[in-house]
Write a structure and sequence with these properties.
With 234 residues, the protein is α+β, with helices and mostly antiparallel strands. The protein contains five helices and eight strands; from the N terminus they run αβββααβαββββα. The strands form two sheets. A six-stranded mixed β-sheet has the order 1-2-3-4-5-6, sandwiched between helices. The chain has a two-stranded antiparallel sheet with strand order 7-8.
């Protein structure tokens, strides 16, 4: 299927771009789990609108009808005022994560579908680039896909700048990039596959590395077409 503009009329706002991204992430995860991933691997999509502030600790009122226990009561801690408060960025996330589950789930690869909020201001762009570079520095393969037409920032260049490298593909508006962190002859490197995207053209197939031996072909066009069909997008 040919790439459509999901962020401008006539598709937007009838078919919201963030809703499509959510469905596309699910389609990619399903394709990985059903057709591509070997045993001991699984994929899961994660989506969030900004930072889920209360994700780490939740407190619930106890049901007074519950029987008493011997648990020791915990004093409520009132911390002092913060020493400083700084601006931060908690942009939307549309991500597919791939885990190796033997011996416990270990993240080995991530596919990022770039949203408008990832590109809309310098702080958000740096936060997205830092997230991806953090994955790469931990040996986690990364793929980014940018079909956002309403923001012109190139996040691939933002990622390269964090590795003090400024060359690569031209400042394309739409693109898909796959990164593979690797150690070769004691040298730490990142292999990069870049593809410029264009409206009205099919999407490419990109490599996604799970380890030094296993590489999967991610057919973006197939998952994109499937998502458009399920969302009744002509």
């Amino acid at each position: 299927m040919l790439l459509l503009d999901h962020f401008r009329p006539p598709l937007h706002p009838k078919h919201r771009g963030d809703s499509f991204h959510s469905s596309w992430a699910s389609s990619i995860a399903d394709s990985l789990n059903e057709d591509l991933l070997p045993d001991w691997y699984f994929a899961a999509q994660t989506m969030s609108a900004g930072l889920p502030i209360e994700i780490d600790v939740a407190t619930f009122a106890e049901d007074p009808t519950e029987p008493e226990t011997t648990a020791v009561a915990t004093r409520v801690y009132a911390p002092p005022a913060a020493t400083m408060v700084i601006p931060a960025a908690f942009p939307d996330t549309f991500e597919v994560q791939v885990y190796y589950e033997e011996g416990g789930a270990k993240l080995v690869a991530a596919i990022e579908l770039i949203s408008p909020s990832n590109k809309d201001r310098p702080l958000h762009r740096r936060a997205f680039a830092a997230k991806c570079s953090g994955y790469l520095s931990q040996g986690i393969a990364v793929m980014i896909v940018d079909v956002v037409t309403t923001r012109r920032a190139n996040l691939h260049h933002e990622i390269l700048s964090l590795f003090n490298h400024n060359t690569g593909m031209p400042s394309a508006e739409l693109y898909a990039v796959s990164y593979r962190p690797v150690v070769r002859d004691s040298a730490e490197e990142i292999e990069i596959w870049t593809n410029e995207l264009s409206l009205g053209e099919p999407l490419p197939t990109l490599p996604l590395w799970l380890n030094a031996q296993i590489c999967l072909p991610i057919n973006l066009d197939a998952t994109y077409s499937s998502t458009c069909g399920r969302r009744r997008i002509p």
